[in-house]
């Protein structure tokens, strides 16, 4: 019901339906249903007949609400969401649906950045082959997306359960695809905007003013590009620049400057000398003398007093007052019915620097610059947002690494959690493998772990875990983001504030699990000597104590704590040092542990490094030798050496998306998995716990080397020889989806694998090329894999040039359009 061109979005939708001869409209409502009913009544004033269906107890989801009115749907019908602005040709979509004898037709469009939408791939006849709801950045395989507009036959609703929350994209459409029900995609021409956030809300208004979308203005065009309603007075000395729209009964005083892109609702008063640059002003607002408004939203009945400034991206809620000479900084939101004192500066630091991001979560959690992006005030709000998605009196485990910045952020998160009535078990400074192990033993709904980023020493990584110790799903991340950005935060009463306790025996719980999943007798007779480098970050220093208990000699290097992580070059120097120490002490091997106890790099008995793909192959060889006919899980980009090793041991390889959560989930979901992960991410032993664990990996290596009576150097000589190359190309976010679609459309389907990115496979051998969008940066990673060095080099060069040419071509077209 928010206004676009001074009319509710729903009214524009009804106008579109009427233009395409839809006469009967059923509105399914849940939140504040009376607002819509009181505005539209029975629909006769708008040229349609409207029936209302209100979900009283709980929302039933996009599909559940339609199933709820199934008895009213006896022929082909159209579903359209209530929060989109579009001028699609719905008649053409219905005609296409009928001609294809489709049971479900999804109206699709192409967008530069498909992250927030369901991505769809169709065949040459437009029959739907695959779709993915709201992918992460690395999962994008097309820029063709689901608009939430569907043409359906009544019988498809029979696949849905009654009186149950369900969704078209997540529940119905995958089921129809699985059962082979005819389902097509109609790629519509025209304008479409999902008005799901403030930036889209403003842009859709400006697009409508510029004529990019066909909407009814409801007021007359007084001069080219200047639409003015009835009974509106504009002083002769006011300046109006096209395009603008001014509603009914407005008053614009002398010397007011209304610049292009401004939208004024009905009954708006603009004082003398006011300067308005592209604001959206709702009905009944009062703008005082010499006020400056900049690309902001002033809601219904709000008042902005003399000489106040409201800057870009800000929102002043309904019936609020902004006092004289006060300043509202960019992207600040003022809740309804609030008063800002005269001369005050209302200022909130943006979470992500100078640009407002809609996505808090990256590849594996919330990541940002320490004490710049991830500040105490940000952490308090994030903790409250997470807690608001949980039931009151729920309990969450919170842990961190040992650095001061992590302690500060953790305390702020705890404050936010407690403020919404959530209880906290504070595990304090604990290695994350320990947290993942013990979290399942605690009566908690989830956990939060705070640490310095494994990849950048100036960044903080905040990871959210479920009650099994696995990173939370994308759906749960979206809920937290929604609560954070909408500020939909619960406030507990004084008596309901959460409690914080410190659980005991955390380390004992991990030690017990550690011992239970090792061959203790094998370890006791190993007499192994291992050199462990902790790189001045000691959260994982529990390992020497565990190994000593089994008679293993652990020599520890660099175990003191630095508050600032060392640089990559310094870490490489420490690896050289580690190699020399291993050789001098004649140790079995050395290991550098980092990433808060999750990841490691090996040094064999001769001092040579083992890392990356070679480390992956070595770990798979060791574990499958010990457990033949078992399953290993690796990311999609891992070398094909893994399959060659698995064939030697009658093993099975499962490949997953290139993100840690996907690996953790797959290790838990599939039976008989003995190892998961890669040299770049770390390794998972799912019987131990669901996460990466350098400590247990090291102990397991000692056990296997002892029982197999081999050295790392001997195992290395038996590894398959595979050429595995990687190259990274810059690619703007707006081009990624189009690039992935181009790759899918220009290669034979039988050679495609779309686990993550686009993988082109020659099934006669182990040759493949993978084009994988980066999850957090405007980059594309290209991997080439082969037994043939020349093929790998030539193919990598070919696809590198192809990607660069495609990016240049699309950017050139965009510049021409501009």
Describe this entry's structure for a reader.
- With 818 residues, the chain is an alpha/beta fold.
- β3, α2 and β4 form a beta-alpha-beta unit.
- α15 packs parallel to α16 (641-648).
- The longest helix is centred in the last third of the chain and has 29 residues, at 789-817.
- The chain is globular, with a radius of gyration of 30 Å.
- It starts with a strand and ends with a helix.
- InterPro entries: A-D-PHexomutase_a/b/a-I, A-D-PHexomutase_a/b/a-I/II/III, A-D-PHexomutase_a/b/a-II, A-D-PHexomutase_a/b/a-III, A-D-PHexomutase_C_sf, Hexapep_transf_CS, LbH_EIF2B3/5, Mannose-1P_guanyltransferase.
- Keywords: Cytoplasm, Initiation factor, Isomerase, Nucleotidyltransferase, Phosphoprotein, Protein biosynthesis, Repeat, Transferase.
């Amino acid at each position: 019901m928010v206004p676009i061109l001074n009319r509710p979005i729903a009214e524009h939708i009804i106008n579109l339906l009427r233009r395409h001869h839809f006469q009967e409209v059923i509105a399914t409502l849940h939140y504040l249903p009376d607002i819509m009913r009181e505005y539209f009544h029975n629909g006769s004033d708008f040229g349609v007949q409207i029936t209302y269906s209100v979900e009283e107890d709980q929302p039933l989801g996009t599909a559940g609400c339609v199933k709820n009115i199934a008895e009213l749907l006896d022929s082909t019908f159209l579903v359209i969401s209530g929060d989109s602005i579009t001028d699609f040709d719905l008649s053409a979509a219905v005609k296409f649906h009928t001609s294809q004898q489709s049971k479900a037709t999804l109206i699709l469009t192409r967008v530069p950045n498909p992250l927030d939408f369901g991505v769809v791939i169709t065949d040459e006849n437009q029959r739907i082959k695959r779709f993915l709801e709201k992918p992460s950045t690395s999962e994008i395989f097309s820029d063709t997306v689901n608009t939430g507009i569907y043409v359906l036959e009544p019988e498809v609703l029979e696949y849905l359960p009654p009186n149950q929350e369900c969704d078209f994209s997540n529940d119905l459409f995958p089921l129809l695809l699985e059962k082979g029900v005819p389902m097509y995609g109609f790629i519509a021409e025209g304008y479409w905007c999902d008005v799901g956030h403030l930036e889209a809300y403003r842009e859709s208004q400006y697009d409508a003013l510029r004529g990019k979308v066909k909407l009814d203005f409801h007021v007359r065009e007084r001069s080219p590009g200047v639409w003015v309603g009835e009974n509106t007075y504009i002083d002769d000395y006011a300046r109006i620049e096209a395009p603008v729209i001014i509603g009914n009964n407005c008053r614009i005083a002398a010397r007011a400057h209304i610049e292009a892109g401004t939208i004024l609702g009905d009954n708006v008063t603009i004082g003398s000398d006011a300067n308005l640059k592209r604001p959206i002003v709702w009905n009944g607002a009062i703008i005082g003398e010499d006020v400056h408004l900049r690309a902001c939203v002033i809601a219904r009945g709000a008042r902005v007093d003399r000489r106040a400034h409201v800057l870009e991206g800000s929102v002043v809620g309904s019936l609020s007052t902004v006092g004289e000479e006060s300043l509202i900084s960019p992207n600040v939101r003022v809740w309804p019915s609030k008063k800002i004192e005269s001369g005050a500066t209302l200022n909130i630091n943006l979470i992500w620097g100078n640009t407002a991001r809609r996505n808090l979560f990256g590849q594996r959690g919330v990541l940002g610059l320490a004490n710049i992006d991830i500040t105490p005030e940000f952490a308090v709000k994030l903790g409250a947002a997470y807690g608001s998605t949980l039931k009151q009196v729920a309990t969450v485990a919170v842990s961190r690494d040992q650095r001061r910045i992590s302690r500060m952020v953790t305390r702020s998160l705890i404050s936010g959690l407690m403020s919404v009535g959530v209880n906290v078990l504070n595990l304090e400074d604990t290695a994350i493998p320990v947290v993942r192990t013990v979290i399942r033993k605690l009566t908690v709904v989830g956990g939060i772990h705070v640490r310095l980023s494994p990849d950048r020493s100036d960044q903080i990584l905040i990871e959210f875990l479920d009650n099994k110790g696995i990173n939370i799903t994308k759906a749960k991340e979206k809920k937290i983001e929604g609560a954070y950005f909408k500020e939909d935060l619960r406030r507990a009463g004084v008596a309901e504030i959460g409690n914080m306790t410190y659980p005991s025996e955390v380390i004992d719980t991990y030690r017990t699990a550690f011992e239970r999943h090792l061959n203790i007798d094998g370890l006791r007779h190993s007499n192994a000597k291992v050199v462990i480098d902790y790189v001045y970050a000691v959260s994982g220093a529990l390992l020497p104590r565990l190994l000593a208990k089994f008679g293993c000699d652990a020599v520890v290097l660099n175990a003191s704590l630095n508050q600032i992580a060392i640089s990559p070059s310094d870490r490489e120097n420490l690896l050289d040092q580690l190699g020399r120490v291993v050789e001098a002490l004649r140790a079995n091997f050395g290991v550098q542990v980092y990433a808060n106890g999750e990841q490691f790099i090996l040094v064999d008995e001769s001092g040579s490094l083992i890392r990356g793909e070679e480390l992956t192959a070595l770990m798979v060889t060791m574990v499958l030798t010990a457990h033949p006919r078992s399953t290993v899980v690796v990311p999609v980009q891992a070398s094909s050496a893994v399959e060659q090793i698995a064939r030697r041991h009658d093993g099975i390889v499962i490949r997953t998306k290139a993100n840690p959560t996907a690996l953790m989930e797959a290790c838990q979901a599939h039976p008989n998995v003995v190892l998961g992960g890669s040299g770049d991410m770390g390794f998972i032993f799912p019987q131990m716990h669901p996460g990466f664990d350098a400590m247990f990996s090291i102990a397991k290596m000692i056990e296997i080397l002892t029982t197999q009576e081999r050295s790392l150097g001997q195992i290395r000589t038996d590894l398959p020889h595979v050429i595995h190359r990687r190259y990274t190309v810059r690619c703007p976010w707006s081009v990624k989806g189009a690039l992935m679609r181009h790759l899918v459309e220009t290669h034979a389907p039988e050679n495609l694998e779309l686990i993550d990115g686009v993988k082109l496979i020659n099934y006669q051998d182990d040759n493949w090329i993978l084009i994988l969008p980066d999850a957090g940066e405007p980059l594309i990673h290209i991997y080439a894999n082969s037994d043939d060095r020349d093929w790998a080099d030539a193919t990598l060069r070919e696809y590198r040039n192809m990607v660069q040419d495609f990016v240049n071509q699309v950017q050139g077209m965009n510049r021409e359009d501009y």
